[in-house]
Amino acid sequence: MVKFKIILNILGKLLVGESFFLFLSLIVSLIYGESDSLAFLKAGLITLVVGSLSYLTSKGVKKDLGKREGYIIVSLVWVVFSIFGCLPYLFSGAISNVTNAFFETMSGFTTTGSSILNNIEELPHGILFWRSLTQWMGGMGIIVMFLAILPTLGIGGRELFVAEVPGPAPDKLTPRIKETARNLWGLYMLFTLIQTILLFAGGMTFFDAINHSLTTMATGGYSTKQASVGFFTSPYLQYVIIFFMFVAGTNFTLSYAVITGKATKIFKDEEFRFYTIVVLLFSLLIAVGLFAAGNISGEQAFRDSLFTVVSIITTTGYATADYLLWTPFLGMLIFVLFFVGGSAGSTGGGVKVVRILLLFKNSFYELKRLVHPNAVIPIRYNKHVVDQKTVTNILAFFVFYVIIFMISSILMSLWTPDIYSAFSAVATTLGNIGPGFGEVGPMENFYKLPDLAKWFLAFLMMLGRLELFTVLVLFSPSFWRH
Amino acid sequence: MLNWKFVFYVMSIIMVVESFFLMISSAVAFFYGDGDFYTFVQSASISLIIGTITYFSTYQCKKDIGKREAFIIVSFVWVIFSIFGAMPFLLGGYVDGFTNAFFETISGFTTTGASVISNIEALPHGILFWRSLTHLLGGMGILVLTIAILPIFGFGGMAMFNAEAAGITPEKLHPRIKETAQRLWGLYMLLIALETIFLALGGMGIFDAICHSFGTLASGGFSTQNESIVNYSPYIQYVLIVFMFLAGTNFTLHYFAIKGNVKKIVQNQEFKVYIALILFVTSVITVTLVYLDHGSFEKSFRDALFQVTSVITSTGFVSADYTLWHPYLLFLIFGLMFTGACVGSTSGGVKILRHLLLFKNSLLEFKRLIHPSAVLPVRYNNDMVGQDIISKILAFVILYFMVFFIGCFAMTLVGLDFISALGAVATTMGGIGPGLGTVGPMNNFAQVPDAGKWILSFLMLLGRLELFTFLIIFVPSFWKNQ
Question: Which of B394, B412, B477 is facing A329, going by the closest CB pair?
Answer without folding.
Answer: B412
